[in-house]
Amino acid sequence: MRGRKVGIIGAGAVGATAAYTLSMMGTCHEIVLFDIADGVAKGKAIDISQASYYAPQGTIVNAAESASDIKDCDVVVITAGVPRKGDMTRADLLMINAKIMKEVVTNIKENSPEAIIICVSNPLDVMTYVCHQITGWSRNRIVGMAGALDGSRMAYQIQQLTGYNAGQIGSLVIGDHGENMIPLPHKISVGDIPLSELVSKEQMEQIINRTKNGGAEIVKHLGTSGYYGPGRAIAFMVEAILNDTKTIVSSSVLLDGEYGHKDVTVGVPVVLGANGVEKIIELELDADTKEKFDISLRSIENGINVLKDNNFFT
Ligand code: APR
Ligand 1 centre and the CA of 269: distance in Å? Predict the structure, then answer.
């Protein structure tokens, strides 16, 4: 069993919601928030601490004055980053966020050397790769949060379509956390009944398309991306690690031969427990899914190559 101190770097919408959710769940003993923007971590830490007064279990929520004050954490969640603005290309954004990641991860390596890192910053799979490269840690200790969120978005679509209780709906999304993600509704069950017995082929396609569009749909209505879904998905993963629950959840991990690929991070089902990624589950992929998986992998490798071409790792 690990200790119960969680660091969250980036106390914006997603980071703060993860902290709030964790404190309401009583999952950890202490949360430390850090944000580069003056006052953000402090203000949110105070607010969440006061909300915790009414939580079933008290959680200490503090703000770190500097990144190096995120010390001796058991889990560190990284949500630091900047969103894409006006004239930025995807490659520009990639370089900017990778530099932020390098700085943040160097600090974690120094100050929380035993931690397990949950990477949340986008582009998710490439940023998770950066965490591996910068830490050089064994690959079980770094995991990207993607499938937990995309899976909840798929379950939502199934619930909306069928009207059946969300709690009994499975979830499985693999591939990148982007436009080539691969929802696999035909592989899941609802209340132990295979979904393929409950919906038509057309409805199955609808579920896939709506899941892929899940993040964009929120942006369309809200003008900004979602944070309750991501915050809760992060808390789900933190809980699996701190409580050593051996929970199966799709996550972005570094492959080393699994699925026929090496040296690339991508979403696949894994077992999460006290050691982080305790196992990578290799699904049998049919020819169509395998083709989609390879396309998805190539899109991630393209991002990694932008960094390599810019000598980011040297
Ligand atoms: N160190 C610490 N915090 C940083 C740093 C840094 N070097 N650089 C930026 N930040 C902080 C920003 O000040 C901001 O408060 O990261 C926070 C990001 O929060 P938001 O802009 O509100 O973004 P959010 O919606 O929370 O998303 C965070 O998660 O889902 C992904 O795509 C999303 O990459 C994004 C990340």
Answer: 26
